[in-house]
Amino acid sequence: MLSVALQILFRRLLLAVPTLLAVSVLVFIVLRLLPADPVAMSLPPGATLADHERLRIEMGFDRSVVAQYGLWLQALLTGDFGTSIYFRRPVADLVRTALPNSIELVAAGLVLGVGLGMIGGLAMFALRATPGETAIDLASSAMMSIPEFLWALLLILTLGVALQWLPFFGRMAPGMTMPPPVTGFLLIDTLLAGRLDQFRSVLFHLLLPAIALAIALAPLIMRILRSSLLETLNEDYVAQARLRGVPERTILMRHALRNAALPTISLIGVQAGFMFGGTILVEVICGYPGLGNLIVDAVRNHDLPVIQVVALVYCVMVLFINAFVEVLYLVVNPRLRAA
Amino acid sequence: MRGPLATLARRALWNPRVLAGLTILTGLVFCAAFAPWLAPHDPNRQDLIMMLLPPAWDAAGDPAFPLGTDGLGRCILSRLIYGTRIALYVAVAAASGAMVLGTVIALIAGYMGGWVDWLVGRLVDTWMSFPPVILALILLVGLGAGVEKVILAIIVVDWTRFARVIRSEVLVIRRRDYIDAARLAGFSHFRVVLREVFPGVLPLLITLFSLEMGIAVIVEATMSFVGLSVGASTVAWGVMISDARQYMNQTPWGVVLPILGIFVTVLSFNLLGDGLRRALDPRLQRRSVAP
Predict the structure, then answer these.
(1) What's the total number of domains in chain A?
(2) What percent of chain A has pLDDT over 70?
């Protein structure tokens, strides 16, 4: 079972390689349209034209676009991600610190969003054909009509500024020192260092942006769960179970919910790209040191090496989640398991 | 009016969601069209004595500025009203562009099948592996800032939303008997696609278009928040939010009111799209209305 799943995962990831190559070409070409001069931007004030020319050659901008791409790809494959023009640090370092933060944020958003969505979906189902269902449905329409980053702003105003329940800026309380980096995931590293106070701070700083992401994800889960629950209850085997005298609650838990899990899982796969996209501005607004903050800083400063790599990292994560979801789907779905 | 299209239109108009969406939308179009008459002030006029006023219902408010002023003493109500112009302009232009591009590609791919369909499928896969915001950001870095660039970016990013859904619908329709009948009757491929296939995807297209307008409003707000959309003299809700963010601790209104504007606009498009989907999708009809 596990080996089959791993095999499929591996095959899916292999199939993702051409997609990634296509993406990298696309990013590269688009960024060469750039009206600004990245060489001039990375020179100190008072640099001479000769300096400019020297750096231009050093950065490879004197070659053809194809040759530039080839060089970049070659370096990438050998683990050299380039150097940031703006931060003047290796891109790999920047990504290594930012990526775990973003993964923690997406994971927390996913858990909260699925939880909230399941509660809402079950409530809608329980209240079906009553005004309660319409009310929840309208509420979910409203939740969907505000993008994540604006939810983050509203949450800062309410939970952060007015009620002062949650911190809303940064990754941990100011003045705290970072735990020794072991995994890069601060939630884990603070525990490994045995610093519960730091763990609390890191967790609380994660909550507000994660809630903003969850509010955007939950309505979709809610709706798909409700409609698949309704669909399942029309199936013959549910009628059979009812005839056998199985209580309604058991039917819901044992049969209906399990079947409704499938469309929900595939929805998460479809939404992965949007979830990651949503984190970008949420991170900016909450001053959360993840990939989103990194790429927006890079965009504002025309920092090409950073933009290229971070865009690719986002695609890798989306492709990875898609592959993972597909495997999960197979594991959960008994109809496909036999094949 | 008679005929199947009239029946559909009548059915759609009876849906409460469609009615609510259309009502809000009419109000927004009215605001955009008559902005110079409705707005109490020039949206760009700064009044540095009147900075950060709360709304008029607050004790410290000034009746001349019904919703208060921003950090440069500009009238928030006037800026909100003018902001509808950019939002609606981007919504219509970007959604139309994405719809035309996506539908044409989907019709060609779905109808022709074979390697064309395969190629389009791979293209859509590649596009979908980008978080849309990332692709839009990269495009805007390449193209430079501006509303027209934002519209172009939305079209280039979001045509896949139409292409993916319409293509699978075309695949279903293509296998219907009446398509074969039309071919046998000697109609050209072009005519078959235009007269037989296209009407079949039209209800779906209208729904997607409505939802896409909402998405376009959000993307424009996002990009103007980051500073990649409108120029300094144009009013956009995203810019208002970004400006007001630094004064958020003193007065929340500068942030809350434009968010409300975005919310109302996107909600109207979502209600409209959602209602149209329920009204027009035959699979969601419990009982057929036509005899």
Answers:
(1) 1
(2) 95
- Which pLDDT does position B287 carry in this prediction? 41
Interface predicted TM-score (ipTM):
0.84
Does residue A256 sit within a domain? Answer: yes
Closest CA to A32 of A79, A65, A59, A7: A65
What confidence score (pLDDT) does residue B289 get? Answer: 38
Number of domains in chain B: 1
Chain B interface test: which of A27, A37, A145, A304 (most B C-beta within 10 Å) = A145
Is the residue at B64 inside a domain? no
pLDDT tens readout for residues A166-220? 888 888 888 777 787 888 888 888 888 888 888 888 889 999 999 999 999 999 9
Over 60: is that where the pLDDT of B286 sits?
Answer: no
In a domain, B233, yes or no: yes
Distance from CA of B183 to the nearest CA of A (A): 37
Contact at CB, A311 and B134, closer than 8 angstroms: yes
CB contact under 8 A, A30 and B126: no
